[in-house]
Amino acid sequence: MPISVAILKTEMVTHNVRHYRVEKPKNFHFGPGQATEVSIDKDGWRDQKRPFTFTSLQNDDTLEFTIKSYRDHPGVTNALWGLEAGDRLLLRDVWGTIQYKGAGTFIAGGAGVTPFIAILRQLHAKGGLAGNRLIVSNQTEKDIILRDEFEAMAGLETLWTVTNDPKSSLLQERIDADFLRRHVGAFDGRFYLCGPDAMVDQLRGTLEQLGADVGSVTWER
């Protein structure tokens, strides 16, 4: 049964990403990295469901979603961009397979970093980030989500790379086998992957070829 919740506040994160802070229903439980299907509680939109990850933590008073809006087509994320405090969303059952299983390398493409936000925030709150690395690929530097927050997390190693921003001083490389050999090196640890399906599929195969244990690679199934 969908639960209707009010948007309490929206906040800009990047030029096309916003935080949506919404009411937290009583006895609503979720874990870091988990998601729910969300729709807009308005006529014509209630049946249009999209999966979004919780980026708040369980003990927060409100729920938070960090959502990229694709403004070039008239879908749910584009409609979300027009919502403000007082508008309502519908939430459904909690699900998700990206759960923390131990220190490792988190690799994301673009908005694929969102399932990692709550995981890394919780580890940071507990002082348990040592040994974790975050590698994120974006098209441009301005697309990086929560860069300042991640870079301020004690114990977390961060590496940013861009694929379509020649003026940026960041790495200008795609995440492929050569990239992983140079920037990761050892493949006997854990890996967490999230991003476009094609990217995740390619990285899973590449990591296996480089010697990673299939059982040590976590992705959204």
From TrEMBL:
It holds the Pfam family NAD_binding_1. Signal peptide: none annotated. Residues 1-101 form the FAD-binding FR-type domain. SUPFAM superfamilies: Ferredoxin reductase-like, C-terminal NADP-linked domain, Riboflavin synthase domain-like. This is FAD-binding FR-type domain-containing protein.
